């Protein structure tokens, strides 16, 4: 897919995130909307995956460490053909496979159980190292959030990833500057974040995480890089595409009500013409 087609797909994925959240009456809005472009680029262009064979040994793995972002994971998987788009409306319902935090292998394409922040970062390292030791050519991408960088565990993982030169691994941190209780800068500042990753001997890149052409270019470069693990700092706008949700931490864990969802969908639909 070219960048234009990918951006349109990301818009559709965002619309289904809104539809699932309003139906669920609970869940996370801001993070999933902000990361939709990166997630779309991974599932539709960069990762070597096939929804017909979701557990193929040599598939690339996409680990969602910030499990609360799962509305965008589910929406991307459904649009990619892993399960019907209509199932998205079962988000967070009793007996649904699509729970508020993802569960390992319950849903085709879901590679890890998520929720406790930090764990997926270590898990992705273990996966990548094991694949490398086995001679499996699969590549591992790990999506992580900025609030998650406050967990000590992630720094242990970066330390080890660099030591063992785990170069079949790219971390993508969603630097959206919000977390559950407020702006990152107020709750627990991370700066100078890029310098910290460099000091951990990671191959650090930055991208505008809401510019599809740039996202694709950066992810491609990351996958080609040899010798060290890669860290992509993706600068995104939380709530991207829905004006009243953008850059407002209060949308961290809140779904739109019926009227807000209608407005959100209207805005997203109108934006398609400008893509
Ligand atoms: C180990 C752990 N501690 C606390 C939480 C509760 N929690 C869920 S999301 C979240 C905020 C994390 O920040 P971020 O992912 O940057 O938030 P967002 O950008 O989605 O608003 C917290 C503290 C958790 N899931 N896991
Ligand atoms: Mg955040």
Automatic annotation (TrEMBL):
Domain of life: Bacteria
Cofactor: thiamine diphosphate
The entry's keywords: Thiamine pyrophosphate
Domain Transketolase N-terminal as annotated: residue spans: 9-264
Gene3D superfamilies: 3.40.50.970
Pfam families found in the cross-reference section: Transketolase_N
Family designation: Belongs to the transketolase family.
Name this protein carries in UniProt: Transketolase N-terminal domain-containing protein
């Amino acid at each position: 897919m070219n960048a234009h087609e990918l951006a349109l797909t990301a818009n559709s994925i965002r619309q289904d995130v809104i539809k699932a959240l309003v139906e669920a009456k609970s869940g996370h809005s801001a993070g999933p909307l902000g990361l939709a472009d990166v997630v779309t680029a991974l599932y539709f262009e960069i990762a070597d995956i096939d929804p017909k064979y979701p557990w193929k040994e040599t598939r690339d793995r996409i680990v969602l460490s910030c499990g609360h972002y799962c509305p965008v994971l589910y929406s991307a998987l459904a649009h990619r053909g892993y399960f019907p788009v209509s199932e998205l409306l079962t988000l967070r319902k009793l007996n649904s496979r699509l729970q508020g935090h993802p569960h390992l292998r319950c849903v085709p394409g879901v590679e890890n159980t998520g929720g406790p922040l930090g764990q997926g970062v270590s898990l992705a390292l273990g996966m990548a190292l094991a694949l490398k030791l086995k001679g499996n050519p699969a590549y591992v991408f790990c999506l992580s959030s900025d609030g998650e960088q406050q967990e000590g565990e992630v720094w242990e993982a970066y330390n080890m990833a660099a030591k063992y030169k785990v170069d079949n691994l790219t971390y993508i941190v969603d630097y959206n500057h919000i977390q559950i209780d407020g702006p990152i800068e107020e709750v627990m500042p991370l700066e100078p974040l890029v310098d910290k990753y460099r000091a951990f001997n990671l191959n650090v890149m930055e991208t505008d995480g809401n510019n599809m052409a740039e996202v694709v270019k950066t992810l491609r470069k990351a996958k080609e890089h040899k010798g060290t693990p890669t860290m992509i700092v993706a600068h995104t706008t939380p709530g991207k595409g829905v004006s009243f949700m953008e850059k407002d931490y209060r949308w961290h864990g809140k779904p739109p009500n019926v009227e807000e969802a209608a407005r959100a969908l209207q805005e997203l639909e109108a934006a398609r013409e400008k893509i």
